[in-house]
Amino acid sequence: MDKKYKIKEPKLGILETKGLKELSKEEISGIFKNNIEEELVITDKTIDSCIFDHIDFSKVKLENVDLVDVIFDGCDLSNQCFDKNSLYRVVFKNCKMIGTSFIDSSCHDIKLENCLSRYLNFAGAKIKGMKIENGELTESTFLETNIENIYLEQVDLSKTEFMRTKLKGVDLSTCNIQTTIFDFYSLKEIKVDAFQCQSLVGMLGVEIK
């Protein structure tokens, strides 16, 4: 992989195993493995140096939460809202992320690996270093998203929209972009293969004989 796509991994030391209720404490770090039955709201916090192992967040609401050096492995983060929050060195692995929102967020060194991530919203987000591999990013939104260094490998971008989002130099040659929606601004200088070119030409209303 090109050096410019190198993503910094989360910085994690020796962590203790904790219960999810401890997320409400002032200092948050540790390994979280067990789900809870009752509703839990975490608000105005920075979650720092944590591993969430197969946690279902459907009963956990994150409000105004920043993430630093965090790994989500096999978690359900559907409909969670990280709007206007900061995410630094965060890994989402084998996660379900349906409708997760990152509007106007600041994302640095983020990795999505083997994730089911539909209807994500990155409108107005600032992305500096993101790697998405072997996943589904269908029907997601990138509107006026500021992207610097993003690597996409084997990603399904069906019906995903890129509007007023500069994708210069972004390699989409291994991705499914057959029904992806681009405006002219976003299309400029992207990298695709010969087969993908036919889909893009058709979208522009050009007929190939």
In helices, the fraction of residues equals under 10%
Total strand segments: 11
Total tally of structural domains: 1
The general outline is elongated
The fraction of residues assigned to DSSP E strands is 35-45%
Strand order of the largest sheet: 1-2-3-4-5-6-7-9
Run of helices and strands: EEEEEEEEEEEHH
Termini separation comes to 37 Å
- Name of the CATH architecture: 3 Solenoid
SSE layout and pairings?
Blueprint lengths: L16 E2 L11 E3 L7 E14 L6 E14 L12 E8 L12 E8 L12 E11 L4 E3 L2 E11 L4 E3 L17 E2 L1 H4 L6 H10 L6
Parallel strand pairs: 1-2, 2-3, 3-4, 4-5, 5-6, 6-7, 7-9, 8-10, 10-11
Structure description:
This protein is mainly β and 209 residues long. The protein has one domain: E3 ubiquitin-protein ligase SopA (Pectate Lyase C-like). The chain has helices at residues 184-187, 194-203; strands at 17-18, 30-32, 40-53, 60-73, 86-93, 106-113, 126-136, 141-143, 146-156, 161-163, 181-182. The strands form two sheets. Strands 1-2-3-4-5-6-7-9 form an eight-stranded parallel β-sheet, with no helix packed on it. It is elongated and about 55 Å long. The termini are far apart. The mean pLDDT is 90.
Tags for this model:
single chain, 209 residues, mainly beta, Pectate Lyase C-like, 8-stranded parallel beta sheet, 3-stranded parallel beta sheet, 38% strand, elongated
